[in-house]
Design a protein that fits this description.
Number of helices: 3
Shape: globular
Order of helices and strands: EHEHEH
Structural class: alpha/beta
Number of strands: 3
Distance between the termini: 19 Å
Mean pLDDT: 91
Strand order of the largest sheet: 1-2-3
Helix content: 40-55%
Strand content: 15-25%
Low-confidence stretches: none
Radius of gyration: 11 Å
Length: 71
Amino acid sequence: CVLVDHGQSIDDFQRRAAALIEVNVPMLQLREKRAADGVRIRFAETLVRLAERSPTQIVINDRPDIAAAVD
């Protein structure tokens, strides 16, 4: 499981997540404790979208409500 956070920007986050998904990491975990809910949802949606055609599983840390919203 690889932990990812928002990094410097959404573009930075997308680049890092896409690179990890491209090499088929088994699992990516979004760990974003300090961001507002809207930001967390945006990053979670991005991960789900990027991984939808890959074997990579997505875990949303500590927020089952956000995980359910983007599933």
